[in-house]
Amino acid sequence: MNQQFAANPKLDIVIERFIDAPARLVWEALTKPEHLKEWYMPREWGRVARAEMDVRPGGMFSIDIAVGDGEPFPNLGCFLDVVPMERLVWTSMLFPGYRPAVFDDIPITAVVTMQAEGTGTRYVFTALHRDAADLENNRTSGWLEGTEIATDQLVALVTSLK
Predict the structure, then answer these.
(1) How far apart, in whole angstroms, are the C-alpha atoms of residue 62 and residue 110?
(2) Where is each Activator of Hsp90 ATPase homologue 1/2-like C-terminal domain found (predicted)?
(3) What is the domain partition of the chain in residue ranges?
(4) What is the pLDDT of residue 5?
(5) Cβ–Cβ < 8 Å for 95, 76
(6) I need a surface site. Which of 13, 19, 70, 153 has the fewest CB within 10 A?
(7) CATH number for the domain formed by residue range(s) 12-161
(8) DSSP string across 95-153
């Protein structure tokens, strides 16, 4: 992925946090399924029933989400760019191996960057959307709120790993 990537405020959502822990621990929380299960889904809303990751370009990003006592809902995507402890990019618009996806949800491409800052890490999550309608839907449907809660859970998990 181009190092000069810039978010577009008309199409993208950016969530940024300072995490008082080294990028190594942020990376572990993002890429190890046992850690991802701890933070990815807002606890009040549901749980991660299953997570599987093949962290390499073209590799699988698979997370099954369960809400309440309901059946797990699968989420499958593909990693596009992997630079350990610096950048992780995945999309729900492709299945593993860069195969075109079939989906009934709003697709996104997620760009996560990590940069050392003092004793910690500047974490930036950017969700790229197809169009303004998808962006507005994710802002108002609860997706944004849930993603912000999950990010707070990520920060808490990473700082507990120190």
Answers:
(1) 14
(2) 20-158
(3) 12-161
(4) 76
(5) yes
(6) 70
(7) 3.30.530.20
(8) EGGGEEP--SS---EEEEEEEEETTEEEEEEEEE-SSHHHHHHHHHSSHHHHHHHHHHH
